[in-house]
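Hi U.,

Before I forget, here's the chain from the pilot set. I'm dumping it here mostly so it's searchable later in email.
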Amino acid sequence: MTNPREEAGMFTDLPRDIPALRDVVQGLMVHDFWAPRYGLTLPPDREQELQIRPVSEKLKRIRELTDQPLIEPRPPEKRLVGICRDFSVMLCAMLRHQGVPARARCGFARYFEPNHFEDHWVCECWQGERWVMVDPQLDALQRDRLGISFDPLDVPDDQFLTGGKAWEMCRAGKVNPDAFGIFDMHGLGLVRGSVIHDLASLNKMELLPWDSWGLIERDEKELSKTDMALLDQVAAITQVDNSRFDELQSVYQNNECLRVPPVIRSYLKTGVQTVKIET
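Structure:
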């Protein structure tokens, strides 16, 4: 998903420090939900940009909107429409292209609403001895509106919970599962989806939040003890830095209910759509 492929030349003149790359990403995209705060009313046809999964296709669309260099911030109406996943995946792609280990993470943020864990994505990059969590979506306007007091270039662990951490907290009864979600979607089923999306993302299959497959699709009443044990295992291994990376790959590859298949279901505003995925 993060391979720029034939559009790799667009990454040639990018800065090599993370703060500057974060700024570049923010100048390329506008978040669908936040668009009105930038004085932007999106026409219906621009909503299709939300369905673009691979970075290579995103770059093509960015070039169609305007052919100016990526390092030049675009006016809001010339930015690609995206969501948190897209900001994180784009930064991840730029860092990987420059040889910096990076990964997009799916989970929940505590900084959008009080007493609520919002469905959200961030980007982690390896800096010397640890993975550092970066939220590339939070520009100056959003930080001001949300009253963000921490550095989005180093998000504290208690401000963003990966899907696995959220799952463990819910399973232990530490937090009400209904506190996790977005809009009218919340509960343990949504947390389960976040666990699996995060595992897939760590295996370089960063799909859209509304994409669904395998164990995500099962009704809660259909989950067996084996299913729950597998989810507990995934939750645990996705929280370890690097020591269980082989297991993380093996669990993903060897469990059909977790691995992204060639065809998935995508739950759009207009209805459910069957989508072919290049795996």
